[in-house]
Amino acid sequence: MDVNAGTIAEGKATIEEVGWELFRLMLDVASGRRKTWAEQWKLHNALVLFNPAPVT
Q1: How far apart are CA 45 and CA 10, in angstroms?
Q2: Under 8 Å between Cβ of 17 and 35
Q3: What pTM does this model have?
Q4: Given a cut of 90, is residue 14 above it in pLDDT?
Q5: SS in 3 state form for the chain?
């Protein structure tokens, strides 16, 4: 949700460019400079870190 990797398929970005974008995002989140999409909208649960859906 936080990185649009579809730009690779569209030919707008390379795998390397999207990889660096993802790497920079991970650094920003790990350092507390940025929240993930799910954290921003409070869509998370304690059991699954990256799953914004409720546990069924």
Answers
A1: 33
A2: no
A3: 0.66
A4: yes
A5: CCCCCHHHHCCCCCHHHHHHHHHHHHHHHHHCCCCCHHHHCCCCCCCCCCCCCCCC
